[in-house]
Write a structure and sequence with these properties.
Rossmann fold, six-stranded parallel sheet, 40% helix
């Protein structure tokens, strides 16, 4: 059986989609009778192992992302590869190419709805685009044989747009890379923090939807006994005295070390589609303080962290204080166990293969 994944969400510093596809490729290489190919944009046409690239222009100020403009070359490449099943991992030109190639080949095509497109466009272009984007999402995703969403929140959004074939398919985490054993104390020493200071961490892009101003204001309220370290690109410049940054893209190993060195993850995002950094922190043995909204509220089950009110710095600060009045280290251990039992890539990809089997595109393992 030959599976082809196609997406434009592929760049040197790209996030959750690339993490998912790279982990998937590595896992599928270990499965008998399965061939897997990635088809992604690049500077030129190349064939490197199980990854193929087609040329596409780069997007300005987009950290290396490329945007295919015409679908014919992508259709031709998919037809040449003759997959048994195609999975489209973005809502743009490659998705339409996947649908057309699937129609011509007579094979099932899955659409993975990684991004909340109406909200994403609306936050940048204005809410007047919501109706247009809702119509676009409905028109595109109703055509797939099956639609996968990384969280119940995302699946509910699709159901509200009358996309009836939407199913929840969670993402996962590399629990060997993100592990409590990566704790070295280097981050705390670099920041000059004493043992009595609680070290909080956040990882991700400094984008508007992460609600970083809420975190910064909560740190002003918490004071010097707490320190927050922000890890990722485009972080704010004006910071309270108890906040520092690693304002750049961090490799997976580097991020794993900083997470393991911390005491808890804090996340104020109230519209997350999944929240991979939450799983990475939990796998590292950290409890999580998030907000009671979006997909993050689905990840923080009882005993693994606490939920604050959305968009409230006061509630975030009080919830952090409440966390450290409890047995927060035991909560971190419970978070680790929860990830191992539920979100290992092996568990996640076996669920994914069940979707393929139901569509008639996979063999029993």
């Amino acid at each position: 059986m030959h599976i082809v994944d196609i997406t434009m969400f592929w760049a040197p510093a790209s996030g959750g989609v690339r993490t998912y596809l790279e982990a998937k490729a590595a896992w599928l290489r270990q499965q008998p009778d399965i061939q897997h190919t990635l088809l992604v944009p690049g500077a030129s046409a190349r064939h490197d192992g199980d990854t193929r690239t087609l040329p596409a222009p780069s997007l300005p100020f987009a950290n290396g992302y490329r945007f295919p403009l015409r679908k014919q070359a992508w259709i031709d490449q998919l037809i040449e590869m003759r997959p048994d099943i195609i999975e489209a991992n973005d809502p743009y030109v490659p998705a339409w190419a996947a649908l057309e190639a699937g129609r011509r080949l007579g094979v099932p095509v899955i659409g993975f709805y990684h991004s909340d497109l109406p909200r994403l466009v609306g936050s940048r272009a204005g809410h007047w685009t919501n109706r247009l984007m809702n119509r676009y999402v409905h028109n595109l995703y109703r055509r797939f044989d099956r639609v996968l969403a990384p969280s119940q929140v995302m699946a509910d959004n699709l159901h509200a747009l009358d996309v009836r074939k939407a199913h929840v398919q969670p993402l996962g985490v590399d629990a060997r890379c993100f592990h409590p054993d990566k704790r070295t104390g280097r981050l705390r020493a670099r920041l000059g923090l004493g043992d009595d200071t609680r070290l909080l961490v956040f990882g991700g892009r400094g984008a508007r939807e992460k609600n970083l101003p809420v975190l910064l204001e909560s740190m002003r309220l918490l004071g010097a006994r707490y320190h927050l370290h922000l890890v990722g690109s485009h972080m704010p410049r004006q910071l309270p005295t108890n906040v520092t940054t690693s304002d750049r893209f961090a490799s997976q190993d580097e991020l794993a070390g900083m997470l393991a060195d911390s005491d808890a993850l804090v996340h104020a995002g109230d519209r997350e589609t999944f929240g991979l950094i939450v799983l990475e922190a939990m796998a590292s043995g950290l409890p999580v303080v998030g907000v009671d909204a979006g997909a993050i509220a689905e990840l923080i089950v009882p005993g693994t962290g606490l939920l604050a009110e959305p968009l409230s710095a006061t509630s975030m600060a009080e919830t952090v204080q409440h966390l450290f009045r409890r047995d927060w280290q035991e909560m971190g251990q419970q978070a680790r166990r929860h990830v191992e039992n539920t979100y290992s890539w092996d568990n996640v990809f076996r669920l994914l293969l069940a979707h393929y089997r139901e569509l008639g595109g996979a063999t029993e393992l």
